[in-house]
């Protein structure tokens, strides 16, 4: 499997980023919901947010890397059998997810830095606070962070249902080419 | 309330009879010569100090008739500040002050019992987290007189201890942290 995308399929970089970040979105949302429900005497009361924030910072870096990679390298051609509305819906969902991920990362950072404190990355380095003391900052950023995270899961659900529909109902290569699987009807993708 | 009106009316009659009048004072919010602070035990090992940055109020005061004094204070609960963004966010949430539902806390005095040369017990109704309970402030008169800018000022401090559960706040912070001490100081400008 190649590093870069080809006309037929996604390459190793795009594929790895896609699946790693999919896992991270689910994991971070679950961790975030769980950690905010902990009682004060839970042994994880301070460590769970520490991990959530550290992994979130890594996620932010991956997101930036992904957007640069996406802009700098060509994407595979559309699967020929995809309808116009399917392409539009798919593209819309993708950009919604990128926008949501970007805003979730920024709002998360703004919660922690609302009073001028930095965010620790696994205790190795501290990412400094750049924007602090906006009116109601932690509250508003928190609401944005929470609702966009739930919204992102919703859109990702539609995105996943679409992929499954292509795989099991249309039986095309949409999901296979993101999984690095063999493409049985690869000729159909050539234009 | 009827008693209060009756007392006020009586006060006015006494004024008409040539007796000393209690002057009305506006809490000096502009100059911020007033603060509402609280402290609560952390695990029984130390204290967390916090404050409400935004509040306003009035009081009436006559050094010759301290028992006729009265005070009203309204606090913007969203302005709670413990110098820690995530903690403040938590305190504003449903586990504690629930500021989206209960945006203000108020204290309205109902009676003053003079206990010493410069001290008194101020009884009043405190509304916090939507719950109204009578509380007693241990208040001290600090001083009064002309200020250098043409005004006339009087100032007090007061403390009281609240049981959080009395005001519907039952989040478990541990046995050492079931009560919070309020520490306030107000300076008023005579109107």
UniProtKB/TrEMBL annotation, chain A:
It comes from Pseudomonas abyssi. GO terms for cellular component: plasma membrane. One of its GO terms (biological process) is respiratory electron transport chain. Its main location: membrane. InterPro entries: Cyt_b561_bac/Ni-Hgenase, Cytochrome_b561_oxidase, Di-haem_cyt_TM. It is found in: Cell membrane. It holds the Pfam family Ni_hydr_CYTB. The chain crosses the membrane at residues 12-35, 50-69, 89-111, 144-164. One of its GO terms (molecular function) is electron transfer activity. Its cofactor is heme b. The keyword Nucleus does not apply. Keywords: Cell membrane, Electron transport, Heme, Iron, Membrane, Metal-binding, Transmembrane, Transmembrane helix, Transport. Belongs to the cytochrome b561 family. Gene3D superfamilies: Transmembrane di-heme cytochromes, Chain C. It is a multi-pass membrane protein. This is Cytochrome b. Residues 9-180 form the Cytochrome b561 bacterial/Ni-hydrogenase domain.
Automatic annotation (TrEMBL), chain B:
The keyword Repressor does not apply. It is found in: Periplasm. SMART domains: YceI. SUPFAM superfamilies: YceI-like. It holds the Pfam family YceI. Its main location: periplasm. Residues 1-22 form the signal peptide. It comes from the Bacteria. GO terms for cellular component: periplasmic space. Keywords: Periplasm, Signal. HAMAP family: UPF0312. Belongs to the UPF0312 family. Type 1 subfamily. NCBIfam families: PRK03757.1 (NF002994). This is UPF0312 protein ASB58_00095. The lineage of its organism: Bacteria, Pseudomonadati, Pseudomonadota, Gammaproteobacteria, Pseudomonadales.
């Amino acid at each position: 499997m190649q590093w870069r995308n080809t006309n037929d399929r996604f390459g190793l970089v795009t594929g790895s980023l896609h699946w790693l970040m999919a896992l991270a979105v689910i994991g971070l949302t679950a961790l975030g919901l769980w950690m905010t429900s902990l009682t004060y005497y839970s042994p994880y009361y301070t460590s769970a947010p520490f991990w959530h924030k550290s992994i979130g910072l890594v996620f932010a870096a991956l997101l930036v890397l992904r957007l640069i990679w996406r802009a700098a390298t060509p994407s595979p051609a559309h699967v020929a059998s995809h309808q116009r509305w399917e392409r539009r819906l798919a593209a819309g969902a993708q950009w919604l997810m990128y926008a949501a991920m970007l805003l979730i990362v920024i709002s998360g950072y703004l919660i922690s830095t609302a009073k001028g404190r930095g965010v620790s990355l696994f205790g190795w380095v501290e990412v400094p606070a750049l924007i602090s003391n906006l009116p109601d900052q932690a509250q508003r950023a928190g609401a944005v962070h929470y609702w966009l995270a739930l919204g992102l899961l919703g859109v990702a659900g539609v995105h996943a249902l679409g992929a499954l529909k292509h795989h099991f109902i249309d039986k095309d290569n949409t999901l296979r080419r993101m999984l690095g699987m063999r493409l049985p009807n690869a000729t159909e993708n050539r234009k | 309330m009827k008693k209060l009106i009756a007392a006020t009316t009586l006060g006015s009659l006494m004024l008409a009879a040539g007796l000393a009048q209690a002057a009305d004072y506006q809490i000096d919010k502009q100059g911020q010569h007033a603060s509402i602070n609280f402290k609560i035990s952390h695990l029984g090992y130390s204290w967390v100090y916090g404050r409400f940055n935004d509040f306003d109020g009035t009081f009436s005061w006559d050094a010759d008739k301290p028992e006729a004094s009265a005070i009203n204070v309204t606090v913007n609960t969203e302005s709670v500040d413990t110098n820690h963004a995530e903690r403040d966010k938590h305190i504003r949430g449903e586990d504690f002050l629930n500021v989206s539902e209960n945006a203000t806390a108020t204290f309205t005095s109902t009676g003053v019992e003079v206990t010493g040369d410069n001290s008194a017990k101020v009884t009043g109704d405190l509304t916090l987290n939507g719950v109204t309970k009578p509380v007693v402030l241990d208040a001290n008169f600090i001083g009064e007189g002309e200020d250098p800018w043409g005004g006339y000022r009087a100032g007090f401090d007061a403390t009281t201890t609240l049981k959080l559960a009395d005001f519907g706040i039952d989040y478990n912070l541990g046995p050492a942290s079931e009560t919070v001490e309020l520490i306030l100081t107000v300076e008023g400008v005579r109107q």
